[in-house]
Amino acid sequence: MFKLKVADAKLLRDMATAISILVDEATFKIDPENLKLRAMDPSRVAMVDFEWPKTVFEEYTCTKPTKMCINISELLKLLKRAGKNEVVELSLDEKTGRLQVKITGRYTRNFTMPTLEASEEDVPTPKITFNVKAKATTEGLHQAIEDAQLVSDHVRIQVDTEKLVFHAAGDLMGATIELQKGSDALLDLEAREPSKATFSLGYLSEIIKAASATSDIATLEFSTDMPIKLDFQQTKEGKLTFYLAPRIETE
Question: What is the pTM of this model?
Fold first, then answer.
């Protein structure tokens, strides 16, 4: 049995949107202290690691640890009907096994939706040593990725001690976007050694675009030809982190 109440529907909607970039059927772990999700996309190229402690919620009740799998796209249809400052309550009807969604604001709406068979897969956190750590604004990253998408479907991210560089090359055009350390876009940069890796712009664009609604600041960590970790800073102690595997280029 659980009951979760979020005072700002937009907060929940933005987070669900970010998760939906990678997974459609999401298995959440709910215990007395927090709500968690760790899942990989169907192609096994990217992973999302999400956690909200009970302090994020206006009300949080969980009598025993449980798993709940839902279709995120269907939930988003309901959440999009809620205004920014409307209250959303989520609870599980144990008799029917259906998720109850209550939206309260100018008027009250009650919806029910089915739950799905919960995944038993245990997705571990990647064990990676990162040589680069960059702190940037999500707006700055979003603009850099959009620029790179004008010429290619993948981008090489490269770093030295002073700048983060995005290289994109297509059949006809190329682009180089530089974010200087200490600029409005690149707030901080630590590099133990020069590093570079290539990633799909499709994944990066969707992740950064969706997650930017939840956070103004992102931390990127990567090493040469290794997965990139994108951690989006949350204002209410929550966690929203993505991992994306590199595109291995052959000479």
Answer: 0.94
Which 3 state secondary structure label does DSSP give 149?
Answer: helix
- The residue range of the domain holding 80 is 2-114
Between CA 209 and CA 203 the distance in angstroms is: 10
- For the stretch 215-228, pLDDT in tens is 999 999 999 999 99
Buried b (16+ CB within 10 A) or exposed e, 73-91: eebbebbeebeeebbbbbb
83 and 170 within one domain: no
d(CA 144, CA 212): 13
Burial class (CB in 10 A: 0-12, 13-18, 19+), 161: exposed
For the chain, the domain total comes to 2
d(CA 196, CA 61): 45
CA nearest to 213, candidates 55, 35, 77, 10? 10
- What span, in angstroms and rounded, lies between the C-alpha atoms of 10 and 84? 5
Sign for the pseudo-dihedral over CA of 222, 27, 53, 107: positive
